[in-house]
Amino acid sequence: MTSLAVLLVILGTGDSRPLAAAVAPIHGFLYLSVIVTVARVPRVTRQTIALSVLPAIGGIVSLRRLAAHDHP
Asked: What is the spatial distance between Cα 53 and Cα 49, in angstroms, rounded to a whole number?
């Protein structure tokens, strides 16, 4: 979530190519790692995997669903 916030601040403040070039790959890696992490959980539902793919909020929602499932 922090990487998304930083990217949005960069977008809002103007053209800061060096900062965007540093943050964008980190953000992309984190986005993909959440999707892979959710998909590798045993007995995960297709709906939870689909949620993890949604930009911005999907990863947080899917990880919370997994946490709630582990702790009834």
From this structure: 7
What pTM does this model have? Answer: 0.73
**How confident is the model at residue 36, as a pLDDT?**
93
**Unique residue bearing structure tokens 């959980």:** 41
Q: Over the stretch 12-64, which tens digit does the pLDDT of each residue have? A: 777 677 777 777 888 889 889 989 999 999 889 999 999 999 887 888 888 88
Cα separations (Å) of 70 from 10, 20, 54, 63, 67? Answer: 37, 37, 22, 11, 5
Q: How many residues are there in the chain?
A: 72
| Chain mean position to CA 63 | 10
Residue 4 CA: distances (Å) to CA of 45, 46, 54, 58, 70: 26, 25, 13, 12, 27
CA 66 to chain centre: 14
